[in-house]
Every structure is written in structure tokens, then in C-alpha cells.
């Protein structure tokens, strides 16, 4: 593989050499426009020539390198290997969104699982790329917990104007950790929001090109990140009362420990949630509109929660126990978990809107 011609900043080669001698887990930090992917490729090429088996854990779910957006991936680079960059990932983990906000747990756990897998493959260096969320309380907290969990031997910060210092100072003096501060390459420019979105949509379009419709039985798979399949199914007369009270069609209803959970069609025309709460003796009513769920991204995962492929939700019939989706996956036999994401896209990869299935809402899930 060959890196695009760039003027390598002073210090890049020195840091690459230090890490080549010491090995271990390397965590790469930088803003969205800091050129982390370019720098990661440079490092991989340098270490590759040194005869080191390098693993790349791509944790940038918005501007992903290895897999489609919303996923983190693992790729291996054997010593002295030459080929196209990026190579096909050897493992994927579906996070469910292109932003880590609201998805910290699947992102952090997924990074740890892939880093452990890289160690099992005897990688001499495990390079972990991260998202560009570095500002604000949420960004600093996410990066702090990643560092605390992964316990890297090297922390590389690509900075323009010391924007990472509030985070780096928290880790100065941590046993076994070296912090390397490096400048952003001059050739790296600011990529506007529209450009990042266009990149994601191209990646989605490429991923789902040639995808086919697949129907899965809910007797053989379980839904993760979705409310249903955990409570008492509502009776016909109960559903009729709710339909009349809310002015909607109820496709499915359950009463669980967290309240009443409803799947409807066509939205609601009445806001009589309080009446329903009183009748059923619950404190929460959560309502999902099937029309707003169509197009939702899904992770088709195996029994270990490793992602086999992504899917786009086309239909969900909880009475018949079937789910249909658009996916490139050819053999569904290994699918055991269907993980619901929070991003809706259309079949050609255009992002529609974000849906939250985690918050208890006393209203239909509307675009946000």
C-alpha cells in the first residue's frame, strides 16, 4: 500500500520508531479534521516495513475507514504486506449511530472486544482510531473512559492549538502510558459537515449496492435495543380501548416492568396518555410508529454479538413473529441477535433522521 504524498510533519517518524520498538496498544486522538486516517495509514506502513503484525481498530463510527458508518471494525496488516487500503475488515461491531452521543456503551465495549481480538491474533501493535468528538464534557468523558478501559501504552494526540490539553493532562503520569503530542499535517484541511455527511452516504450506498430482502423469524433470533418481546401481551379488548383512546391503529402492545409499550401505525390523533396510565396502572407509555421505524439501521449479529452484516428495516410483524430487512448478508443461519440502531436511511444510503428507542416517551417517536 502507498500513502498519498504528504509533507510529513516533524516528529511523525520519531514517534513511529519509538512505538515500533516498544509495541502495545496505541490510541489515536484528534478532531474530525485532524487527519487521523492519513496518519494511521502512515503509521501502519512504517510498522509494516519493520516486520510487525499491525492491527487497526477503526472506532470512528461517523467517518469509518474499514466498515460502513455506524460500525467499528478490525483489520490486520501482516508484515511486509502490500495491497489496497483499506483491506476488508476481519470483524465488525454495530454501534447503531454515526455519533457516539447516546451510544457510549456499545462503542466502548466494542472497542475493547476488538482490541482483545487483535491481541488474540498476536498483533504486535494495536492502533485504535477514535471519533472526532473531543470537545465538551461528553467528548472528554468518552475519551477518558476509552483510555481507562483500553489502558494503551501510547497515546497520540494530533493537535492544532492545544485543543486536546484538557484531556491529556488528566492522563499525564499514568503508569505505563506515554503521551505523544504531534502537529496536524499542513495538507489536512477542514472537512465541512456537508462533506462528512456525503462521505457517509456514499459508504452506505456502496455497502447496500446489490442488497436483497431477507425475512427472519423472531422464534430464532432476539431483538436487542428494542422494547418488545419482554412483557405481557395486551388482550384484544385492551388494544381496542387504546386504539379508541389514542385514535390510532395498535399493531402490538405489551405491559412490562417499565410501563406500557405500543407499536402503532399512522401516528396518534389524541394525547390521552394520562387516561391510559390510570387504567393500566403504569407510569410510562412508550409509543413507536411503524412508519417512523421503516428504514432503521439494524445490526445482524451472531451469538457473540459480533456483526455479520447491516440491514435496513423494511417490516416488523410481532404477531406473526417476522422481521424483514434489506441486507447484503447471503446466509442468515448464524444470525442470533438483531440490534436496533437509531439512524434511518433509505435504500440508496441517504440519511433520513434519528429515532430514539431508548428514552421513555409519552408520545409517538417523531423525527429529531
Can you give me a brief rundown of this structure?
This protein is of the alpha/beta class and 368 residues long. 27% of the residues lie in helices and 29% in strands. It has 9 helices and 18 strands.
Characterization of this structure:
- By secondary structure, the chain is of the alpha/beta class.
- The chain folds into two domains: 12-191, 3-Layer(aba) Sandwich (Rossmann fold); 210-368, no CATH class.
- 27% of the residues lie in helices and 29% in strands.
- The chain has nine helices and 18 strands.
- The chain has a seven-stranded mixed β-sheet, sandwiched between helices.
- Strand 15 and strand 16 form a beta hairpin.
- The chain is elongated and about 75 Å long.
- The model is unreliable at 358-368 (pLDDT under 50).
Strands of the biggest beta sheet: in what spatial order? 4-3-2-5-1-6-7
CATH-defined architecture of the largest domain: 3-Layer(aba) Sandwich
Cα Rg: 23 Å
Are there runs of 5+ residues with pLDDT below 50, and where?
358-368
Report the top-level CATH class of the largest domain.
Alpha Beta
Largest sheet: 7 strands, mixed
Named CATH topology of the largest domain: Rossmann fold
How many beta strands in the DSSP annotation?
Answer: 18
Amino acid at each position: 500500500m502507498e500513502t498519498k504524498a504528504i509533507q510529513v510533519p516533524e516528529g511523525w517518524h520519531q514517534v513511529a520508531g519509538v512505538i515500533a520498538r516498544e509495541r502495545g496498544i496505541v490510541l489515536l486522538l484528534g478532531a474530525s479534521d485532524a487527519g487521523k486516517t492519513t496518519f494511521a495509514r502512515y503509521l501502519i506502513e512504517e510498522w509494516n516495513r519493520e516486520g510487525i503484525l499491525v492491527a487497526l481498530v477503526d472506532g470512528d463510527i461517523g467517518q469509518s475507514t474499514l466498515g460502513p458508518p455506524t460500525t467499528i471494525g478490525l483489520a490486520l496488516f501482516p508484515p511486509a504486506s502490500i495491497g489496497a487500503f483499506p483491506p476488508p475488515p476481519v470483524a465488525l461491531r454495530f454501534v447503531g449511530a454515526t455519533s457516539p452521543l447516546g451510544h457510549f456503551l456499545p462503542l466502548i465495549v466494542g472497542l475493547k472486544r476488538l482490541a482483545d481480538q487483535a491481541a488474540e491474533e498476536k498483533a504486535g501493535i494495536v492502533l485504535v482510531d477514535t471519533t472526532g468528538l473531543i470537545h465538551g464534557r461528553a467528548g472528554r468523558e468518552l475519551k477518558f473512559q476509552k483510555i481507562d478501559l483500553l489502558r494503551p501504552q501510547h497515546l497520540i494526540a494530533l493537535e492544532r492549538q492545544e485543543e486536546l490539553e484538557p484531556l491529556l493532562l488528566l492522563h499525564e503520569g499514568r503508569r505505563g502510558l506515554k503521551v505523544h503530542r504531534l502537529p496536524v499535517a499542513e495538507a489536512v484541511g477542514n472537512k465541512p459537515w456537508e462533506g462528512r455527511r456525503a462521505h457517509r452516504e456514499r459508504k452506505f450506498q456502496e455497502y447496500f449496492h446489490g442488497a436483497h430482502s431477507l425475512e427472519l423469524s423472531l422464534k430464532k433470533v432476539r431483538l436487542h435495543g428494542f422494547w418488545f418481546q419482554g412483557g405481557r401481551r395486551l388482550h384484544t379488548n385492551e388494544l381496542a380501548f387504546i386504539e379508541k383512546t389514542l385514535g390510532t391503529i395498535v399493531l402490538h402492545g405489551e405491559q412490562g416492568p417499565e410501563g406500557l409499550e405500543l407499536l402503532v401505525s399512522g401516528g396518534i390523533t389524541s394525547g390521552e396518555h394520562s387516561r391510559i396510565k390510570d387504567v393500566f396502572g403504569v407510569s410510562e407509555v412508550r409509543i413507536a410508529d411503524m412508519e417512523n421505524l421503516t428504514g432503521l439501521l439494524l445490526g445482524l449479529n451472531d451469538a457473540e454479538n459480533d456483526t455479520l452484516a447491516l440491514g435496513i428495516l423494511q417490516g416488523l410483524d410481532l404477531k406473526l413473529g417476522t422481521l424483514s430487512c434489506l441486507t447484503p448478508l447471503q446466509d442468515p443461519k448464524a444470525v442470533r441477535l438483531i440490534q436496533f440502531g437509531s439512524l434511518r436511511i433509505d435504500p440508496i444510503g441517504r440519511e433520513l433522521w434519528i429515532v430514539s428507542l431508548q428514552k421513555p416517551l409519552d408520545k409517538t417517536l417523531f423525527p429529531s
